[in-house]
Design a protein that fits this description.
Layout (H helix, E strand, L loop, with lengths): L1 H28 L4 H6 L20 E4 L2 E5 L20 E3 L26 E4 L2 E5 L15 E6 H6 L1
Antiparallel strand pairs: 1-2, 2-3, 4-5, 5-6
């Protein structure tokens, strides 16, 4: 019985790695957008300190509940402060246009991660849809660039 369990576990791990690799390839090619990547967070590896020098630009990683894509190859082996939320020149933020998948507003990193029309986020218990291109301010600071879609609870239950 233990052999069957071990074999099943190995098979699941192999499938998970294959699924993650296929999703990463779609992200690198531009086929997988922020909505698909956000919906597939369970198959995206978590960022860790490592050498990203040979990782294809566009490869997704998740960090603290947010999906980022590699923007610039680099070696973060000895750089604990080069996480995607801090190393703004190395990572791009992924946004979703699906209100049910919306996560908390994340401050854009320079020109990377700016919110575009239809991109969604949450703030103060509400789900917001961006209405203006290149938006860098949250709904609470620039309400004219956002449409309030309702409370998070209402959106998730709809």
């Amino acid at each position: 019985m233990a052999d069957i369990v071990a074999l099943a576990k190995e098979e699941l791990e192999a499938r998970g790695k294959a699924d993650a690799a296929a999703l990463a390839a779609r992200a690198v090619s531009g086929e997988a957008d922020g909505t698909e990547l956000t919906a597939s967070q369970d198959t995206i590896p978590t960022w860790r300190q490592r050498d990203f020098s040979d990782v294809p630009v566009g490869t997704p990683y998740k960090w603290q509940g947010v999906v980022y894509k590699l923007w610039q190859q680099h070696d973060a082996t000895g750089q604990p402060d080069w996480s995607p939320d801090k190393a703004v020149s190395l990572w791009d933020i992924c946004h979703t246009i699906d209100p049910k998948l919306a996560g908390p507003y994340v401050q854009p990193q320079g020109t990377l991660g700016m919110y575009q029309p239809e991109d969604c986020c949450t703030e103060n218990g509400h789900v917001w849809k961006c209405t203006q291109p290149n938006t860098v301010y949250p709904p609470s600071q620039l309400p004219a660039s956002w449409e309030d879609l309702g409370t998070e609870e209402e959106i998730r239950e709809a």
